[in-house]
Design brief:
Elements: H1 2-18, H2 27-32, E1 36-40, E2 51-58, E3 66-69, E4 75-82, E5 85-91, E6 98-102, E7 107-113, E8 134-135, H3 146-152, H4 156-170, H5 176-190, H6 197-204, H7 208-218, H8 223-241, H9 247-253, H10 259-270, H11 274-278, H12 282-286, E9 291-294
Amino acid sequence: MEERVNKIKLLERCGVFENYKYLPWQPGFERTAGRYRGRIAESQDGMAGIVADFYEIDGRKLREGKIPVIPDGCTDLIFVSSGREAKVYVSAGVLEPQNFQFTNPESIFGVRFMPGATCHIFHNSIGEIVYKPTELKQFLRDTKGYTEKIVRTPDFEQKIHLAVKFVRSLLLEEDGSERIVGYCCKRMYETRGLIAVKKLAVETGYTERYLDMLFERYVGTSPKNLCNIIKVQYAYLLMKCYPGLPLSYVAQCAGYADHSHMNRVFGRYLKASAGTVRDDSIFQKISQEKTIVFA
């Protein structure tokens, strides 16, 4: 039954891509958590284009408090409860496989923001915290009591309800730079990462160098990297949704020149070949990768 539910969730994620949108996926969260709950942000949440999904992990079930993470271009708000202590972190997306490590976590709840979307709640540079999880209080002085309520609430759906209210209470007006990043991200989603940065420069009227600067600040990586990450995510989902597909066909569907090209890109962002990713051997490899400590 659980396998069938997971298959439905995978197909739902693939369906988002096929509708020319982007829905990031962290398979390591689901695989390593003894108890994992997740929900894709829905239209009634009013978080379209801002939040991708919500998740909850029983930290007591994690092996050595570690979670394997792959590139997705997103920034997460991560609420960690450890005994009487609770902390909230802003965690930028990684550019290669890593392990998130927590100290004696009891419960972990996360809000995964779409690439560049944290500009809706604060204007701090995301590029400065890549690989450096930072407590939310460094970004926001007043959390209006929401963080404490979210951590204390045992019910997952209630946590989501409070998190949505929290994000809504923080929404800021977009400035011109943020609108440019938002437009570029939308075009990347529509093309599943296949649009050239040169074309984005023409469409926006800004130089590639300027777009690079904006993306480093608001997304934490370059437009070219984000395009590649979106393609990798799509190919990864296709493999897991349709395990019988030849890898050469997956490569074609995801926009790679051929299987070898896909392997090279996977090697850069996942440190593994497409075949290793498909059979889940990637998680054994990630366990030996670098660790990001949430102190």
